[in-house]
């Protein structure tokens, strides 16, 4: 039985029990545990840094309890994701981007609470804000996964994501300085930061961060990061030893995290603690909390997508959203910050050889051991190393999106990244997020408006209906072809693209160098939908064409699009100025019929007899009479299928009178009209000459008089009267060449 997340706990539990029984090969256990140990050691350093970032300034005295929250989150999130992720080697822990914004939330809460609140009231309000953020984020991630919306997050513009990450990098840099120097990075604090006593507290961390960045940029071996962290700690204590500084003195001077309270690192919210929470202050931070949820969803999907490429394995994005959502809901109940898939740690574990769920479980066990038994050890952790790690993370983001992006992004996209970063730096993170989305929407509208909504611009000279007409009618239509203009439209039409179409049509109509238009056809075959705001442009288009006595023809409109246009004021009528036809072919046929009727032609006229038509082919009456001896006359009723698609080709037909339709039968059951032919035409010649199966079906639409020339009769003609057969073959060759030239003309027009 599946739970609401679509995950089968029973099946996974059985799998885990089977693993414990020895079904996981020993060669997988050792690399997985080794990968988990290395990743856990690195993650602990970062979780301590995140706690120091959030609980800094007036909250610095609560950093030990903050570390307990981040380590608790690492245990829960890593365990849940390790058990249920679609990729077995995934590591998920509390992350940097949410921590950077949570630091802003914590600072705002401290400011809003004021000095009238007790230390416990302020602390528990911050913890409640963190827990609320994580639970809300978890619920949103779960909803995204449940409704299979993972793919939608990929549509977030790339430069906007880059701007968010660059802004996160700046917040991490600010937080790193705050952790090391005890004051935020800002213009008002520059003098204090460059005081000699303060300078020595944060400059070594910056040097460490730059050193870590340069080394890892050249060589990202999995062993380098642990060695650098351990080396930095050893160097710190070596300097203390040389300077004859005791642990107590270093702690008193603010170089170390400790000493910590003996109550333990993890102190979750209890019912009594909840009574101390100032909920109105938390509700005032909902904008930043919503931003964290939004950023976390994007970051999770970006990390997962990058992990797919790194491990060369498909990962179910919607499943990962659900798993991360459940993990955050559980971790949020214990006060943990937001966490999700860690790209660097997961990739590192994969490179070490960890290919099983033991990797994430080992990270959870390692963090759990530090949570419950390592408080005394953590109290000796140098702040300068923590600040260096935070500065390293921020520097990595900034270099990637400020320096590296210059070489790989278009200038307008790069400019958007820098603009979002500047707004975040000077106005705030939420303002940067909002501005980035707003600017992206504006740029999207501008760029989409530049896309030509006109797929093909055609005239009656290079595109016409599938109706076969007499030679005289074809000549007339050809001479008046410029009176018929056809626009095949494409893409989603909104006010921007509709306006560009209107401008194009206005330019076409007002151009005195072009022949006056009589018919304007708009084909919507490749238009999935149109925005209601675009309807006004079509109404203005209708007014323009009506004043110029131009028939406006709409073809292949969906019922919804037709309804929108009618609501805007367009009136479709079979006798009015604005016409609607279900297909482009129907619309073109109507336009051609109107041209012929206006010139006095009867589109339903009875053509000349076959004998009269043959006089145009052969040089004398004797040839005509001899040819008629090889064909068989037939009278066929309406609705008869003369040729079945797929049958063998054994004859061709001359039509003396009537009406037939050629239809292509598709595998899905739909039929497409290829040609509509009246008397005086010929059909079946291609199949007869190529000796291939019929490629379409032919049905009579009216009672027809026709003449059948069989393959056997043609061979007999070639044997008995080769000169007559040669004349006939020449005529067929000219007919097919004319049709080919017409087709090539259409193809050329469509390729422009």
Structure description:
The protein folds into 3 domains: 418 residues, no CATH class; 147 residues, 2-Layer Sandwich (Transcription Regulator spoIIAA); 142 residues, Jelly Rolls. 61% of the residues lie in helices and 11% in strands. The protein is elongated, with a radius of gyration of 39 Å. It has a 5-stranded mixed beta sheet with strand order 3-5-6-7-8. It is α/β, with parallel strands linked by helices and 752 residues long. The N terminus is likely disordered.
Tell me the total number of β-strands.
Answer: 16
Note the beta-strand portion.
5-15%
Q: Tell me, what's the shape?
A: elongated
Structural class: alpha/beta
Number of helices: 30
Terminal residue distance: 58 Å
CA-atom Rg in angstroms? 39 Å
Total tally of structural domains: 3
Parts with pLDDT < 50 across at least 5 consecutive residues:
1-5, 19-24
Give, in spatial order, the strands making up the sheet with the most strands: 3-5-6-7-8
- How would you sum up the major sheet? 5 strands, mixed
Average pLDDT across residues? 85
Helix content: 55-70%
Quick tags:
5-stranded mixed sheet; 11% strand; 752 residues; 30 helices; Jelly Rolls; alpha/beta; disordered N terminus; elongated; Transcription Regulator spoIIAA; 3 domains; 16 strands; 61% helix
In short:
Helix content is 61%, strand content 11%. The chain folds into three domains: 418 residues, no CATH class; 147 residues, STAS domain (Transcription Regulator spoIIAA, 2-Layer Sandwich); 142 residues, Sandwich (Jelly Rolls), CATH 2.60.120. A hairpin with a 5-residue loop joins strand 12 and strand 13.
């Amino acid at each position: 039985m599946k739970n609401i997340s679509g995950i089968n706990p029973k099946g996974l539990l059985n799998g885990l029990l089977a693993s414990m029984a020895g079904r996981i090969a020993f060669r997988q256990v050792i690399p997985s545990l080794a990968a988990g140990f290395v990743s856990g050691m690195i993650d602990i350093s970062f979780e301590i840094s995140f706690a120091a970032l959030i609980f800094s300034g007036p909250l610095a005295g609560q950093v030990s309890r903050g570390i307990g929250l981040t380590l608790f989150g690492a245990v829960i999130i890593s365990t849940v994701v390790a058990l249920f992720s679609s990729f077995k080697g995934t590591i998920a822990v509390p992350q940097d981007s949410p921590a950077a914004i949570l630091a802003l939330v914590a600072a705002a809460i401290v400011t809003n609470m004021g000095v009238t609140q007790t230390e416990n009231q302020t602390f528990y309000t911050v913890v409640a804000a963190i827990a609320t953020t994580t639970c809300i984020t978890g619920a949103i991630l779960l909803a995204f996964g449940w409704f299979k919306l993972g793919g939608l997050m990929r549509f977030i513009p790339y430069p906007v994501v880059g701007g968010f990450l660059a802004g996160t990098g700046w917040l991490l840099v600010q937080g790193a300085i705050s952790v090391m120097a005890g004051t935020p990075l800002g213009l008002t604090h520059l003098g204090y930061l460059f005081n000699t006593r303060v300078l020595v507290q944060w400059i070594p961390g910056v040097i460490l961060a730059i050193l870590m960045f340069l080394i890892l940029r050249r060589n990202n071996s999995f062993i380098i990061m642990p060695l650098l962290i351990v080396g930095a700690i050893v160097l710190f204590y070596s300097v203390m030893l040389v300077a004859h500084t005791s642990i107590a003195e270093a702690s008193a001077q603010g170089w170390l995290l400790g000493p910590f309270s003996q109550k333990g690192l993890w102190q979750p919210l209890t019912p009594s603690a909840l009574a101390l929470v100032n909920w109105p202050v938390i509700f005032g931070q909902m904008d930043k909390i919503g931003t964290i949820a939004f950023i976390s969803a994007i970051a999770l999907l970006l990390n997962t997508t990058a992990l797919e490429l790194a491990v060369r394995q498909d990962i179910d994005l919607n499943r990962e959203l659900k798993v991360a959502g459940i993990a955050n809901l559980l971790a949020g109940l214990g006060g943990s910050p937001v966490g999700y898939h860690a790209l660097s740690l997961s990739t590192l574990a994969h490179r070490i050889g960890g290919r099983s769920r033991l990797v994430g479980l080992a990270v959870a066990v390692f963090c759990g051991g530090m949570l419950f038994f390592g408080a005394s050890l953590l109290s000796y952790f140098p702040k300068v190393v923590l600040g260096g790690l935070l500065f390293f993370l921020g520097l990595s983001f900034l270099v990637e999106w400020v320096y590296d992006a210059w070489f790989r992004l278009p200038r307008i996209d790069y400019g958007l990244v820098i603009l979002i970063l500047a707004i975040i730096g000077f106005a705030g993170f939420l303002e940067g997020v909002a501005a980035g989305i707003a600017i992206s929407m504006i740029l999207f509208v501008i760029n989409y408006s530049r896309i030509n909504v006109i797929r093909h611009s055609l005239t009656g000279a290079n595109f016409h209906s599938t109706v076969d007409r007499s030679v005289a009618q074809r000549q007339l239509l050809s001479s008046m072809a410029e009176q018929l203009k056809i626009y095949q439209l494409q893409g989603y039409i909104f006010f921007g693209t509709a306006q560009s179409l209107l401008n194009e049509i206005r330019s076409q109509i007002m151009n005195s160098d072009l022949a006056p238009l009589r018919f304007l056809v708009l084909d919507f075959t490749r238009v999935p939908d149109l925005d209601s705001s675009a309807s006004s442009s079509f109404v203005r288009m209708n007014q323009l064409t009506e004043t110029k006595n131009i028939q406006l023809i709409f073809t292949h409109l969906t019922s919804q699009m037709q309804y929108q246009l009618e609501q805007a004021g367009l009136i479709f009528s079979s006798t009015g100025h604005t016409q609607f036809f279900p297909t482009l072919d129907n619309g073109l046929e109507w336009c051609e019929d109107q041209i012929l009727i206006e010139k006095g032609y009867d589109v339903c006229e009875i053509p000349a007899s076959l004998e009269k038509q043959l006089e145009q082919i052969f040089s004398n009456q004797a040839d005509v009479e001899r040819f008629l001896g090889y064909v068989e006359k037939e009278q066929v009723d309406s609705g008869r299928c003369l040729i079945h698609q797929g049958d063998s080709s054994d004859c061709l037909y001359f039509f003396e009178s009537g009406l037939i339709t050629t239809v292509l039968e598709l595998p899905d059951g739909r039929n497409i009209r290829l040609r509509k032919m009246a008397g005086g035409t010929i059909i079946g010649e291609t199949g007869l000459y190529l000796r291939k199966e019929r490629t379409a079906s032919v049905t009579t639409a009216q009672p027809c008089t026709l003449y059948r020339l069989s393959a056997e009769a043609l061979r007999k003609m070639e044997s008995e009267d080769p000169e007559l057969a040669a004349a006939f073959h020449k005529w067929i060759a000219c007919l097919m060449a004319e049709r080919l030239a017409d087709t090539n003309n259409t193809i050329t027009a469509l390729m422009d």
